[in-house]
Each structure stands twice: as structure tokens, then as C-alpha cells.
């Protein structure tokens, strides 16, 4: 039975719009220009401040996701698909997959730009995060020119279909992509790849794999509170040097550092190398700014020159340092 | 329970009958009020059930009715169909003094009445029931394409909107011309 929604009082209409999920709003906005105008006006009055819009260009497909709550559940609201897989002669095509609209474009970049502009304009919000692989690097410059506000989140993924080294691309990404809260970089690089620039400031830097390129200098120059590097090749003398740098007041923003080594790493004579204040530190310690604990089984604490303490734990596979500011 | 449900409805507002309340009668006698819709059928509703309606609750607080006065002067809601008012009264009775659950299974099932129910509930300012109704309206378009949504929510196409706008302009033009002609006639 039809329901004449446009004939409902303003309060009722607002309440219905508030109940709809963002993907349903986007789909409804395609009903007519009038409907789109009405929905846009709703969000002009009530900006959904808690919503986080993520622009995605991964595996040759574009997508807009929105997180509406703190639990990080994402809702895809619209997608862009490459037109060449379609056998139609139409210029563009719209399909619906029961959850969100899929728009087909001949020009992939233009398609993604269009859906980003459409959704940001509809909801009156900016782009919060950018998720890309090597083919989406164009979006870094586009976003920084297109919106004043810095991204809060940036994620650069390894595309399993691209197996060759991406040294130049990763270098470009590390120099140009900026995010205030979360920065994730993962891609295949050559053994000779080096990065001599700076990263940050940011809350969290995460290198989930292929972190062989991270050197002592990189670690010193990363301006992040929380750093995790996997496949690290940092040497033990390098780590000692980093701890001395920290003890002397370097990297003052650092609250957590975790390195997972690519190869077995031996921390021989650790206590002789550094002034250990306390040994056998065991227990759960709350990570700063996060609702998570880190469990130490066999930590030892060291102290900075200004009295700030850190707990360190290591074995042949990993090294962890948690600072207690 | 409304009096209509007990088979005691009356077209005359002066003779509403009291529905028997549950066996465990409250120590303090509950006060009752009377409402009628477009069909003039009077429903007897307890003050507790009427608490759901901010409009009626406000009227009661402002008017300071006694039960006798309330019986003689039922609240008239001429803009609400009798069957819709019955649904609203039933819902208020079912949820009297109870915390409203997040999902309501007692919502009226007749979808064809949903629009009128929404208007009535909005008018009577029954917030929880309005939220349930709006959820039902929102659920209608879950997993639907723009074309399907357009049908379900009776949204005119761009072409229909343009045609309606043209028509409205034409009508406005004619009316303006008519007024000008009438004014000229008056001047003569």
C-alpha cells in the first residue's frame, strides 16, 4: 500500500528521514530532483556530525562508505563500477543490488569524483577517510585540493593483483598523503626502497606488512602516538639507539611502539645496554586514547631523563614499548 | 480498554459507558476522559492512557476538568476518522503505565490506514507511537530501488513535478488576471 510521504507534516518527514540508513537516503535521493532537494535540506539543518564518510578506490572500483556509530560498522551507500565490463551501449548505467546503487562510468576517476561530490553534498559532510590501492593514488591530490580539512584516516592497501614493486608510488604516498588520526600503509616494495621524509603528526601509524623499509631514522622521524610495524628489519643496535634517543627526550609524542620482526632477533645483553629500572613487569596496561589493554608477560621498565617511564618487552619475534606519560 | 471495544459506543456524547477495568482495581479511583473523532463515537479513556498524548495531557492540565465536566464535554477531534481514533485509543490503553518497548508488535496492521494514523498521532503528539509509525514507513523502502521507492512513497517523477509546477503557474496567472479584471470592473 503506497504511503504519500511528501504529504506528511514536516516533523513526521524529519523523523522518517532520521530513521533511514544512509544507503537508503542516497537511494531515495535518486527518486526525483525534488526528493533530493528535500533530503539535502534536511541535512543542511541537521548535519550528521557523527557520521564518517570514507572514499574508496580499490581494485578498480569506487565506493562511498559511511560509519554512523562508534562501532566502526560501515554502510556502503553508493558504488562506482567500471563501465567496460558492461555490454551496453548506454553512456552510463545505474543498477541496484538491494543495498546500494551501483553507477557505471567509462571514466573511472570522474565516476568516483561524481559520487563523492554527490554524497558529500547530500549529507553536508566532508570526506573523513580515504582507502586506496596503487590505482587510487590520484585521489590523494584530488582530496587535498577539493577539501580544506585534512583527512582523519588514510589507508593504503596492497592490491593482490599487483605483484611488482611500488617504490615510487609508496614514496609519493608517504610524502603526500596526510591524516590526523590513523595512517595505514601496506604495499610491496623492493629491498632497496628507502624513505627519507617525515610522517605525521598523527595518532596512529600502522604498517601491517612489508615494513622492511622502516629504518631507525624513519622511526625517529615518525610523529605518531601509536606505531605498529610488521616485517621490521630494524637491528638490535638500531633499537638501542632509538631507546637512547627516546631517553634523551626524543619522540616525546610516542605512547606505544610495536615492531614485529621479519627474522628472528636476538636481544643479547639488553640490561647491560640500557638502565633498567624494574624487571618482571606483568599485567594488562591500558593503551592511551584507546579502549584496549596490552598484556605484558615479562616486561622491564626504563626511565626517561625527565622521569617518564616506559615498559619494554621483547623476544625473538617482537619488541614492544609502552610509555606512561 | 475503550468503551467502543466493549460494545458500548454511542453516537451521543452524553452517554458513554465505563469499561470494566482489571480485577485489581487501584486504591485511588482513576479519572477518565472522553474523546470523539469525526464519527462522533465517544471513547472513554483513562487519564493514565491519555498521558501518551502530549496534546490531550496539556488540554487536561490547562482546563482542570472534573470527571463530570469531562463526561459532558468530550474532546472533539473532528479531523480524525473514528476508526483511526479507535486505533490510537487502543494503543494508548495497551501501553498505559508501561515503558514502551523499542519494537512494538501492537501497531495497527492495516497499512492502508498508516498515513491517516501518522497524521492523527502527530496531531495528538504521541511521540512513541509516532516513532513506531515512522519506523514502519522507513521499513517500507528497505532494499528497494529508486523506482520502487518512488511507487511506495508516491513520489512524483521530475516530469510530473515539472508539469505540476507549470499547471500551478498557469493557474496562478489566470487567478491574477481574474483579480485584475475584477479590480478594473470595480473601478468602473
TrEMBL record, chain A:
Q: InterPro entries, from UniProt?
A: F-box_dom (IPR001810), F-box_Sdz-33 (IPR012885)
Concerning Pfam families, the annotation shows:
F-box, FBA_2
Residue ranges annotated for the F-box domain, each copy included: 2-54
Protein name (Swiss-Prot/TrEMBL): F-box domain-containing protein
Its ancestry begins with:
Eukaryota, Metazoa, Ecdysozoa, Nematoda, Chromadorea
Q: Which gene encodes it?
A: Cnig_chr_III.g9299
UniProtKB/TrEMBL annotation, chain B:
Part of which pathway? Protein modification; protein ubiquitination
Family, according to the entry, reads as follows: Belongs to the SKP1 family.
Residue ranges annotated as compositionally biased, kind Basic and acidic residues, are 165-177
Q: What does this protein do?
A: Probable essential component of SCF (SKP1-CUL1-F-box protein) E3 ubiquitin-protein ligase complexes, which mediate the ubiquitination and subsequent proteasomal degradation of target proteins. Regulates cell proliferation during embryonic and larval development.
**Transmembrane portions of the chain:** none
Question: What name does this protein carry?
Answer: Skp1-related protein
Sequence ranges assigned to domain SKP1 component dimerisation in this UniProt record:
127-170
Amino acid at each position: 500500500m503506497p504511503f504519500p510521504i511528501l504529504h506528511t507534516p514536516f516533523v513526521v518527514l524529519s523523523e522518517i528521514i532520521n530513521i533511514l540508513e544512509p544507503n537508503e537516503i542516497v537511494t531515495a535521493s535518486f527518486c526525483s530532483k525534488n526528493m533530493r532537494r528535500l533530503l539535502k535540506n534536511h541535512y543542511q539543518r541537521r548535519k550528521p556530525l557523527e557520521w564518517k564518510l570514507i572514499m574508496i578506490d580499490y581494485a578498480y572500483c569506487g565506493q562511498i562508505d559511511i560509519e554512523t556509530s562508534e562501532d566502526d560498522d560501515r554502510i556502503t551507500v553508493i558504488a562506482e563500477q567500471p563501465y567496460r565490463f558492461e555490454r551496453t551501449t548506454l553512456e552510463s548505467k545505474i543498477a541496484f543490488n538491494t543495498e546500494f546503487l551501483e553507477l557505471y562510468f567509462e571514466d573511472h576517476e570522474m565516476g568516483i569524483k561524481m559520487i563523492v561530490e554527490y554524497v558529500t553534498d547530500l549529507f553536508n559532510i566532508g570526506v573523513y577517510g580515504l582507502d586506496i590501492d596503487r590505482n587510487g593514488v590520484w585521489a590523494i591530490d584530488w582530496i587535498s585540493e577539493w577539501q580544506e580539512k585534512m583527512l582523519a584516516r588514510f589507508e593504503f592497501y596492497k592490491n593482490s593483483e599487483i605483484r611488482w614493486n611500488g617504490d615510487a608510488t609508496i614514496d609519493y604516498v608517504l610524502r603526500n598523503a596526510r591524516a590526523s588520526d590513523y595512517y595505514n600503509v601496506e604495499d610491496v616494495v623492493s629491498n632497496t626502497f628507502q624513505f627519507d621524509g617525515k610522517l605525521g603528526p598523527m595518532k596512529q601509524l600502522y604498517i601491517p606488512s612489508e615494513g622492511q623499509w622502516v629504518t631507525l631514522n624513519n622511526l625517529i622521524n615518525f610523529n605518531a602516538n601509536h606505531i605498529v610495524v610488521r616485517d621490521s628489519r630494524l637491528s638490535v643496535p638500531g633499537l638501542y639507539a632509538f631507546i637512547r634517543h627516546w631517553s634523551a627526550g626524543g619522540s616525546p609524542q610516542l605512547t606505544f611502539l610495536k615492531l614485529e620482526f621479519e627474522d628472528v632477533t636476538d636481544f643479547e645483553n639488553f640490561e647491560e645496554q640500557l638502565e633498567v629500572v624494574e624487571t618482571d613487569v606483568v599485567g594488562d596496561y591500558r593503551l592511551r586514547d584507546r579502549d584496549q589493554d596490552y598484556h605484558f608477560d615479562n616486561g622491564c621498565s626504563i626511565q626517561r631523563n625527565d622521569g617518564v617511564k616506559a615498559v619494554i618487552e621483547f623476544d625473538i619475534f617482537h619488541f614492544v614499548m609502552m610509555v606512561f606519560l | 480498554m475503550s468503551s467502543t471495544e466493549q460494545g458500548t459506543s454511542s453516537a451521543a456524547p452524553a452517554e458513554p459507558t465505563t469499561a470494566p477495568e482489571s480485577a485489581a482495581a487501584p486504591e485511588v479511583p482513576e479519572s477518565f476522559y472522553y474523546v470523539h473523532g469525526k464519527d462522533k463515537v465517544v471513547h472513554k479513556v483513562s487519564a493514565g492512557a491519555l498521558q501518551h498524548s502530549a496534546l490531550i495531557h496539556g488540554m487536561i492540565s490547562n482546563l482542570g476538568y472534573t470527571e463530570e465536566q469531562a463526561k459532558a464535554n468530550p474532546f472533539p477531534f473532528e479531523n480524525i476518522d473514528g476508526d483511526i481514533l479507535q486505533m490510537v485509543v487502543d494503543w494508548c490503553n495497551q501501553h498505559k503505565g508501561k515503558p514502551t518497548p523499542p519494537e512494538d508488535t501492537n501497531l495497527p496492521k492495516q497499512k492502508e490506514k498508516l498515513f491517516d494514523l501518522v497524521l492523527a498521532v502527530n496531531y495528538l503528539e504521541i511521540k512513541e507511537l509516532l516513532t513506531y509509525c515512522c519506523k514502519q514507513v522507513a521499513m517500507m523502502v528497505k532494499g528497494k530501488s529508486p523506482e520502487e521507492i518512488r511507487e511506495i512513497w508516491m513520489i512524483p517523477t521530475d516530469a510530473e513535478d515539472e508539469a505540476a509546477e507549470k499547471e500551478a503557474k498557469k493557474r496562478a496567472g489566470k487567478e491574477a488576471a481574474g483579480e485584475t479584471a475584477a479590480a478594473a470592473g470595480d473601478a468602473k
